Amino acid sequence: MPVIDSHVRIAAILHIVMGAIALLVLLVVGAIVAAVGTFGMSLGLERDVAAWVGGVGLLLVALFAVIAIAEIVGGVMLLRGSELGRAMTIVFSALSLLNIPIGTAIGAYSLWALLRAVPQPQSGSAPVRSGAAQSY
Questions:
Q1: Number of helices (H) and strands (E), helices first, in the chain?
Q2: Which of 81, 59, 54, 69 is nearest to 15 (CA)?
Q3: Does the pLDDT value for residue 15 go beyond 80?
Q4: Which of the given ranges, 13-22, 30-39, 124-133, has the highest pLDDT on average?
């Protein structure tokens, strides 16, 4: 398993959690849309309108579920060190910027973590502990 920067690992976990939360929300929304589609006539809707709401609503829920699953897959692939997972997570990070306020923070952090240049230790120098005083 490749060594992954701690910030990249956190970004991957955040995107996995965001995808899982999105799936849970879509489960509830899908149940509501299905109920309206099924019992719409008893709620006072015309039969065609209830069928349209149920059909189109469930199509949209399915589309967003596929997107949420892709975000989870991208996060897992990033945890495993895949470049495709990195690209997928960058795309989902950019899309998360529109999800105000939590998604914006997660998207900005993820973009920072994934697009920054990670300093590599030089071969002849001793490793520097974080928090230790450095002399220049």
A1: 4, 0
A2: 69
A3: yes
A4: 13-22
Query: Cis (ω within 30 of 0) for the bond into 127?
Result: no
| Percent of the residues in the chain that have a pLDDT greater than 90, as a whole number | 65
8: Cβ–Cβ under 8 A, 6 or more apart, which residues? 78, 86, 113, 114
Q: How far is the CA of 30 from the CAs of 35, 40, 41, 109, in angstroms?
A: 8, 14, 18, 30
> At residue 47, what is the residue type?
R
pLDDT computed for residue 42 by the predictor = 83
- Mean pLDDT, residues 14-18 taken together: 97
Q: What's the CA gap between 49 and 38, in Å, rounded?
A: 11
